[in-house]
Structures are given as C-alpha cells and as structure tokens.
Write the structure tokens for this entry.
Amino acid sequence: MFRISNHYVSKIVFLLLFVEVLVLLGAAYIGAAVRMLEFEDAAAAAHLDHFFTSAVAFTVAIIFSMSAMGMYQLDFDEGLRHPFFMKLMPSFLMGFAILALVFYMAPELSFGRGTMALVFLLAGTGIFLARMAFFKSSEARFLQSRIMFLGSGPLAKECSELASKNSSYHKYDIAGYIQIPSEELCVPSTSLLKVRDGDSLVSLVRQHNVSEIVVSVQNRRGGFPIKELLDCKLQGIRVTDAATFFERETCQIRVDSLQPSWLVFGGGFDQSFVRTFMKRSFDLVCSMIILVLAFPLMLLAAIFVKLEDGGPVFYSQERVGKDGKTFRVHKFRSMRVDAEKAGKPQWAAQNDPRVTRFGNFMRKTRIDELPQILNVFKGEMSFVGPRPERPYFVEQLIEVVPYYNVRHSVKPGITGWAQVRYGYGSSAEDALQKLQYDLYYVKNNSLFLDVLILINTLKVVLFRSGR
C-alpha cells in the first residue's frame, strides 16, 4: 500500500482504477470516432476536436458510480465474478443518470444518442475484460508480500491473524516469527525461525526473502534488537511497528496496544489554517448542494412525520462537539414522542421498538440526518467527522474507552469514517470499535478522505448498511 494525503490506498486498487480510467477515456474517443467515420458527419468531426471535456465527464461519472456501488472494495478470496456482475449494470445505470443531468445542464458536452450507446457498449466490454484480467492474476505471487514478525507473543499472534485473513487488497506470505527472550509464546512453535549463532537479522531476512519486518513486541526493553532493525532499514528492508501495521491494514487505530508516544511523534493530526479553510469550504459547498437537491424530499419527510402520529416534526438533542463544547443537534424525529419517558438516556439500537414506521425508513436512508445541515451552516458540525454523542454517554465512555476524548479535537460530522465502515453500535464495545475508526480519521483527515467518505456514504444509503 501507499499513502495519498495520509490515507492508505491499495496499489492493486489504484492500478485497477488507473486501467479503467484509460478504458473509459478510450471508449469515449473510439465511440465518437467510429460514429464520425460511419456517418461522415462534419459536425461530429469538429466536435471531436474538443471532445476531451466530454470524455472526462463520462469517465468521472462512471468511476464515481462504480465507487458508490463498492466495486473497488475487492476481496480476492471471495471471488469477484458474482459481485462484479451484480454491480456493473447498476453502476452504468447510475452513471447514465448522472450524465443525463450533466448533458441537460451543458448540452454542448453531449455525445448524441447513437454515440452514447456505442460508448457505453465499448466501456462495458472494456471494464469486463480489465476485471477478468485482474481475476486471473489474483493468485499470482507478485500480488503477495513476504513478511516476518519480530515477536511471538499475543501482539504477534494478533498481527499474524490480521495478515492471514486480510485478503481485501493485499496478500501476505508469512515467513515466520522471531522469538524475543522472556516473551510469552502464543504462536505455533513450528513457525519460529531458527537463528543460528552469528546470524544477523539482515542475513535472516535475506535467507527467507522477506520484504518487511513487523515489530510486534509489547515490551521493547531487554533483548530488543534495535541496532539490527536499523541495519535492516539501511539495507532497504521495510520495518513497521504493530500500530502502523494495524492502521494500514484496517484503517483503524487500535487503542488496546497503542503507545501514547506513537500518537505524539507520528504524523497526521493536521489542524493547519489551510486544512481548516479547505474543510470549512468543503462543508459549505456540500451542504448547499445537498440542501438544494434534497429540499423537496425534506418537505415530504416533514409531512409524513407529522401525519404518522401528530407529534413534532423535528427534535433537538444536546451533543458534545469540538473541544468538548455542547450544542443542540437537529434531526427529523424518528422515534415516538415518549421514547425516553423514564427520563434516562438510552442507547439507540438496531430494530429499536421505539422507532416509528416512517422513522425506520428515514434511518435506513439517512433522511433523518438532513436537518443537521443547519448545524453545519452554524459551524457547530462538519459534513464529515466523528458522530456527535450525548454528554451522558460521553462521560461514561471517557471512563472505559482509552483516548475517547481525542475525537473531540475536530468538529463532529453528519457522516464519518466510522459510520461507513462499521455497523450499528449500541454499547461501549461498539463505541470502542467506532472510536478506532474515528481516531484514524482525526489523525489522517484530508480533503481526499472526506471525498472517499461521501462516496462510501452513498453506498451505505444504497445498500442500507452502516449507521
């Protein structure tokens, strides 16, 4: 993997995306050229001279649609054929709808009906062939990385289990483990690498053809080979600590094995003026677009909420925002009026009996969240950020969840990394899992990651997953 704006991106997915961008651009140009030659249309020939903008619009619409359908969340072990066929047609239909809107607003970019049909046919065929080439290469050894674990205790076992089951974007071939004196043995003894007297760590790495060493030792005091690790790094061998390995492979920051110094001296946590300005501009632009597009839907939602039980359309609730300051969040009411008649705050749960019938629909489609756009305009929230929680639960979670307050260093959001990556949470254990995604966002937040979260939010709404 490599990093774009602090976010880890799979080289395999990036290569697939690059190839498919070329396929889509090529399909647009070839389709237009074929139609021009077929009908010897002088106007079409003139249009071909400034066709680049039209081709880019087509490519962006299809790539966006495929991303929203989850077609770049690969799983080689599962086999890509079934989900590929199930998602390709809806992706192209969504892309067609987006292009219809674009061409309506900018007619000069239009392909023409005949050209559009041919371009879509060529693009579909090209995407199919590109994907099949990746299917065939999914078992090739060049997609694998050979790694070694320095350590044999609980942390090494956890890291190796992650490397073994994480087949979404990368495959690992585990060479073995190097046992550290006085450390508990939690991995099979047969997987331990034999270190002969006089062997250096560099020679052992070369002997087993290892490209990366994952340092998975909790106690780095007596017997920790720091000088030999430095020699490995100077020889071009990647040396990665367990916290970075977890962050890279899961897009989380694990708090149970995290050293505070890793957060202090590591990169990320960008709160510069440029980032703040870009974040605020992004919030305002996205909120304005969503408000204009969704305003008719919001009016209908307000009518249905009122008609269902005659109660209030909106509800406001105190939440904890940036720097621990409280504010009132606004939503469409999705629960009964007496949802907390006992007077004590309760966790919202999946299939919560307090949710009304139309409220259940709003929660699945995220319509109930739309009034929070007002909080964004007021500057209390961002469009993307950690989910704001109620003060009652924050006080409890700070006591049991390490680093929980770190998420309050940025503005909360309508949608966020935890909401698109994790299911519905209704307990302290779920809060811990979501916090680990929130910490990743706080540490690595960027405009690039915000855009990815928006695309994933659309996928969550379409497939009614996440929270």
Residues 217 and 341 are 50 Å apart (CA to CA). Residues 141-250 form a domain with the Rossmann fold fold (CATH 3.40.50.11060). The two ends are 27 Å apart (CA to CA).
